[in-house]
Design a protein that fits this description.
182 residues, mainly beta, 7-stranded antiparallel β-sheet, 5-stranded antiparallel β-sheet, 2 helices, MYDGF, Myeloid-derived growth factor
């Protein structure tokens, strides 16, 4: 069983911008971080960040978090090194139309070699997804995986067999909920 620990939410200072545009792929879909991630005044039931261990050894592990009926599952197998502390953040937009999930290593680059990974959103249809071999930390920038390294479906994002280079440090997925106003 994975060790779970709630991470306090970071509040932005008043007057600071609350959102930035995602990559051009997200812009193409008309999504921005401010739409996908609840604002700092959102209630605690709309966002959650949890710490978990990513364990090497080649065994398949799954870590799942959710808000209401929406769930994000991260399934992986990795080799080399020792356990790494990772975070999973899930968020539901104020209008209940977008559910976001980010899984990442806060120290930046992971030193594990991933033999496989899959992120699955339940209750949504994926609108945007991207994976990174390195995350912004210590003055470094996010380094996205090549488009051919990942496969994006309606509800899953997976590594592409034979093309994935075993490096993963961050995964971001945004799904549109099936929530419709009457």
């Amino acid at each position: 069983m994975a060790r779970r620990r709630e991470i306090p939410q970071i509040r932005r200072r008043p007057g600071k911008p609350d959102c930035k545009r995602l990559t051009s792929a997200a812009s193409y879909h008309g999504l921005s971080v401010c739409e996908a991630v609840p604002k700092s005044d959102a209630t605690d039931d709309r966002t959650k960040t949890v710490e978990f261990n990513v364990k090497p050894g080649g065994v398949v592990h799954t870590f799942t978090e959710g808000i209401r009926e929406y769930k994000c599952s991260f399934t992986y197998a990795s080799q080399g090194g020792t356990n790494e502390q990772w975070l999973m953040s899930v968020g539901l937009s104020d209008d209940d139309r977008l559910f976001s999930c980010s899984v990442w290593r806060p120290q930046g680059k992971s030193y594990l070699f991933f033999t496989q990974f899959k992120a699955e959103l339940k209750g949504t249809k994926i609108e945007y997804a991207n994976a990174y071999s390195q995350t912004a930390a210590g003055g470094q920038s996010d380094v996205p995986l090549k488009p051919e390294e990942i496969t994006i479906g309606d509800s899953t994002v997976t590594h592409t067999d034979g093309k994935f280079n075993a490096q993963l440090s961050k995964l971001t997925v945004i799904g549109r909920t099936r929530h419709d106003e009457l």
